[in-house]
Design a protein that fits this description.
- It is a single chain.
- By secondary structure, the protein is α+β, with helices and mostly antiparallel strands.
- It has one domain (about 10-135).
- Helix content is about 40%, strand content about 20%.
- The protein is built from three helices and five strands; from the N terminus they run βαββααββ.
- It has a three-stranded antiparallel β-sheet with strand order 1-4-5.
- Helix 1 runs antiparallel to helix 2 (about 75-105).
- The N and C termini lie far apart (about 60 Å).
Length: about 160
Protein backbone atom coordinates (compact mmCIF):
# COMPACT_ATOMS: atom_id res chain seq x y z
CA UNK A 1 0.00 0.00 0.00
CA UNK A 2 1.22 3.48 -0.87
CA UNK A 3 -0.59 6.66 0.09
CA UNK A 4 -0.74 8.89 -2.98
CA UNK A 5 -2.56 11.83 -1.45
CA UNK A 6 -4.21 12.73 1.82
CA UNK A 7 -3.33 12.27 5.44
CA UNK A 8 -4.62 9.89 8.08
CA UNK A 9 -6.86 11.92 10.36
CA UNK A 10 -7.97 10.52 13.66
CA UNK A 11 -10.31 11.42 16.44
CA UNK A 12 -9.02 10.91 19.93
CA UNK A 13 -7.32 12.36 22.97
CA UNK A 14 -3.64 13.27 23.20
CA UNK A 15 -2.09 13.74 26.66
CA UNK A 16 0.49 16.44 27.42
CA UNK A 17 2.37 17.32 30.56
CA UNK A 18 2.96 20.93 29.50
CA UNK A 19 1.34 23.53 27.29
CA UNK A 20 4.70 23.99 25.58
CA UNK A 21 4.61 20.35 24.44
CA UNK A 22 1.03 20.83 23.23
CA UNK A 23 2.07 23.91 21.23
CA UNK A 24 4.92 21.93 19.61
CA UNK A 25 2.48 19.13 18.75
CA UNK A 26 0.02 21.60 17.20
CA UNK A 27 2.80 23.21 15.13
CA UNK A 28 3.84 19.77 13.89
CA UNK A 29 0.23 18.93 13.08
CA UNK A 30 -0.14 22.17 11.12
CA UNK A 31 3.12 21.55 9.26
CA UNK A 32 1.89 18.06 8.32
CA UNK A 33 -1.41 19.43 7.00
CA UNK A 34 0.29 22.24 5.06
CA UNK A 35 2.82 19.89 3.46
CA UNK A 36 0.06 17.46 2.51
CA UNK A 37 -2.13 20.30 1.17
CA UNK A 38 0.75 21.56 -1.00
CA UNK A 39 1.60 18.05 -2.20
CA UNK A 40 -2.03 17.27 -3.05
CA UNK A 41 -2.47 20.62 -4.81
CA UNK A 42 0.59 19.79 -6.93
CA UNK A 43 -0.93 16.42 -7.80
CA UNK A 44 -4.12 18.18 -8.93
CA UNK A 45 -2.08 20.61 -11.04
CA UNK A 46 -0.13 17.79 -12.68
CA UNK A 47 -3.29 15.81 -13.40
CA UNK A 48 -5.01 18.83 -14.92
CA UNK A 49 -2.00 19.60 -17.12
CA UNK A 50 -1.88 16.01 -18.31
CA UNK A 51 -5.61 16.11 -19.01
CA UNK A 52 -5.31 19.45 -20.90
CA UNK A 53 -7.55 21.35 -18.45
CA UNK A 54 -6.75 25.02 -18.15
CA UNK A 55 -8.65 25.82 -14.96
CA UNK A 56 -9.59 24.30 -11.62
CA UNK A 57 -13.21 23.69 -12.60
CA UNK A 58 -14.92 20.91 -10.77
CA UNK A 59 -14.59 17.68 -12.65
CA UNK A 60 -17.39 15.24 -12.09
CA UNK A 61 -16.69 11.82 -13.46
CA UNK A 62 -19.39 9.58 -14.82
CA UNK A 63 -19.31 5.92 -14.14
CA UNK A 64 -19.61 5.80 -10.35
CA UNK A 65 -21.56 2.78 -9.11
CA UNK A 66 -22.45 1.95 -5.56
CA UNK A 67 -21.27 -1.41 -4.30
CA UNK A 68 -22.51 -1.89 -0.77
CA UNK A 69 -21.30 1.10 1.23
CA UNK A 70 -18.66 2.34 -1.24
CA UNK A 71 -18.61 3.92 -4.68
CA UNK A 72 -16.52 2.41 -7.47
CA UNK A 73 -15.53 4.01 -10.77
CA UNK A 74 -14.51 1.66 -13.56
CA UNK A 75 -15.54 3.82 -16.51
CA UNK A 76 -13.36 6.95 -16.28
CA UNK A 77 -10.31 6.40 -14.08
CA UNK A 78 -8.58 9.71 -14.95
CA UNK A 79 -11.52 11.92 -14.10
CA UNK A 80 -12.47 9.78 -11.12
CA UNK A 81 -8.95 10.16 -9.74
CA UNK A 82 -8.93 13.93 -10.27
CA UNK A 83 -12.33 14.19 -8.58
CA UNK A 84 -11.06 12.32 -5.53
CA UNK A 85 -7.91 14.45 -5.24
CA UNK A 86 -10.04 17.62 -5.53
CA UNK A 87 -12.11 16.28 -2.65
CA UNK A 88 -8.97 15.70 -0.55
CA UNK A 89 -7.82 19.29 -1.20
CA UNK A 90 -11.23 20.65 -0.20
CA UNK A 91 -11.14 18.59 3.03
CA UNK A 92 -7.59 19.66 3.95
CA UNK A 93 -8.25 23.39 3.50
CA UNK A 94 -10.51 23.80 6.59
CA UNK A 95 -8.22 21.55 8.68
CA UNK A 96 -5.28 23.84 7.93
CA UNK A 97 -7.39 26.92 8.69
CA UNK A 98 -8.77 25.59 12.00
CA UNK A 99 -5.36 24.38 13.22
CA UNK A 100 -3.82 27.76 12.29
CA UNK A 101 -6.60 29.52 14.21
CA UNK A 102 -6.00 27.38 17.31
CA UNK A 103 -2.25 28.10 17.19
CA UNK A 104 -2.78 31.85 16.74
CA UNK A 105 -4.99 32.00 19.83
CA UNK A 106 -2.92 29.56 21.90
CA UNK A 107 -1.35 32.46 23.82
CA UNK A 108 -4.76 33.03 25.43
CA UNK A 109 -4.72 29.46 26.72
CA UNK A 110 -1.24 29.93 28.16
CA UNK A 111 -2.38 33.10 29.99
CA UNK A 112 -5.11 31.27 31.90
CA UNK A 113 -4.47 30.62 35.61
CA UNK A 114 -3.79 26.87 35.38
CA UNK A 115 -2.50 24.55 38.10
CA UNK A 116 1.25 24.07 37.81
CA UNK A 117 1.23 20.27 37.91
CA UNK A 118 -1.80 19.83 35.62
CA UNK A 119 -2.07 17.33 32.79
CA UNK A 120 -3.58 18.58 29.51
CA UNK A 121 -5.80 16.48 27.28
CA UNK A 122 -6.25 17.64 23.70
CA UNK A 123 -9.34 16.35 21.91
CA UNK A 124 -8.93 15.93 18.16
CA UNK A 125 -12.01 15.47 16.01
CA UNK A 126 -11.15 14.31 12.52
CA UNK A 127 -7.57 15.41 13.16
CA UNK A 128 -8.61 18.94 14.12
CA UNK A 129 -7.99 20.27 17.64
CA UNK A 130 -11.32 21.11 19.26
CA UNK A 131 -11.06 21.02 23.05
CA UNK A 132 -8.56 21.01 25.90
CA UNK A 133 -9.24 19.45 29.28
CA UNK A 134 -7.08 20.52 32.23
CA UNK A 135 -6.78 17.67 34.73
CA UNK A 136 -5.18 18.66 38.02
CA UNK A 137 -6.12 15.38 39.72
CA UNK A 138 -4.00 13.00 37.64
CA UNK A 139 -0.59 14.50 38.30
CA UNK A 140 2.51 14.19 36.20
CA UNK A 141 4.75 11.14 36.21
CA UNK A 142 7.81 11.32 38.41
CA UNK A 143 10.89 12.46 36.57
CA UNK A 144 14.01 10.52 37.20
CA UNK A 145 17.43 11.97 36.62
CA UNK A 146 20.71 10.22 36.18
CA UNK A 147 23.91 11.65 37.50
CA UNK A 148 27.23 10.04 36.83
CA UNK A 149 30.81 10.78 35.98
CA UNK A 150 32.97 9.30 33.26
CA UNK A 151 36.63 8.73 33.81
CA UNK A 152 39.25 7.98 31.22
CA UNK A 153 41.44 5.01 32.11
CA UNK A 154 44.85 4.61 30.59
CA UNK A 155 45.90 1.11 29.66
CA UNK A 156 49.35 0.04 30.80
Amino acid sequence: MQTEAGVTLTSGIVKFYSLEDMRKYLKGLLDTYQVEFDKTSNIVGSMLRLDDHKSMEVIISRGWAKAGGIYINTADAKKGRIEIVFQIVSELKPKVAKTEEVLKTFDAVEQLPLPEEAVFLLYLHGGVPERIVVDSTEGRPERLTYSGALEAVEEA
